[in-house]
Amino acid sequence: MNWKQYVDKDQMVAWRRHLHKYPEVSYQEKETSAYIVKALEQMEGIEILRPADTSVVGILKGAKPGKVVGIRADIDALPIQEQADVEYKSVHDGVMHACGHDFHTATLLGAASVLSKIRHQLCGTVKFIFQAAEEQFPGGAQAIVDSGAVSDCDYFIGAHVLAKLKTGLISCWPGTATASPDKFLIHVTGTGSHGAAPEASIDVVTVAAHIVTNLNSIVSRNISPYDNAVVSVTRFIADSSLNILGPKVELGGTIRTMDEGVRAFIHKRLEEIVSGICQAYGATYQIEMMKGYAPIINDEYVTRIVQETAKELYGEDVLVRPRTLMAGDDFSAFGQIAPTAFFLIGSGSEEEGYEYLVHNPKFIANEDILPIGAEMFVACALKLLES
After folding, report:
1. Is 134 a catalytic residue?
2. Exposed site from 55, 245, 282, 323, fewest CB < 10 Å?
3. pTM greater than 0.85 (yes/no)
């Protein structure tokens, strides 16, 4: 079937630029979801569900029964003040699509438009999952799973832009694809004093500094170089005047792992370090550990479909395997239901003029990837329906 004639880059660019101009953060995507619904209503044969909060699921049934394939895009933006110099810059103060979710959403709308035009030739059902709140734990994916709206899916596919990778290159490999993004807060309490009399205090700044130094040694000295792990302290707050040794310090950060054994070990080691240092200095502590999303596990069969599709569409050289991605994504929740595959699309290299990573206020991506993402979604869905 000649479905490529229906791939409309101009329309996807228009969708994407509107979404970029009017971003909304996690759990607040009311206008975004309304815009998605309006776009889907212009496509024939798509039933629209609102399974949870601000998420949207479009259901397209083919002429004959068959497999059910779920395709997911996340729709939320980030609490970042945009600094990118683009004509469609965010009009919402302090909110920006800095992670490419505007691309994901426009790409999935493009795929839905194509498949709706060839629905009479389809065997099976495609569910277009526009998911809210990927950026904020517990995330919107689990709510969709719990709603039962996609419980009949036989396979799930999803995609994400990959900054600093040459435009249009694709990465998808079986096995663990993302990390578990855990967070921690450490509250250290001592005894305050005048800065001129440190001997009268239990100096929590010194205690916290030793904690930071030792936490930074966990990966380098306790974890095998064959395992992937990150421990980053991203918050150090000692709220006091410049001449006062305050009584409290708050530390915070993230732990990224791809193995449950390594994950458990780092959690245990973190508490041992904090406890030991606080005991040595006479301070007390409290730790809040917030476990994040499970890692995405790419199923071997679905991954092979994605790889074969990419090579058929764009040639043998389109597949690349970049360095391990230590980001987390709640697409993993759909793996509770059926096999999944999550692929990455290069959104522009530094040599091409795209120098910023995601979550940067100057992040931009190449709009040439919009038809690539849509074509991958359509072709993978057709192959999986036929399976």
Report:
1. yes
2. 323
3. yes
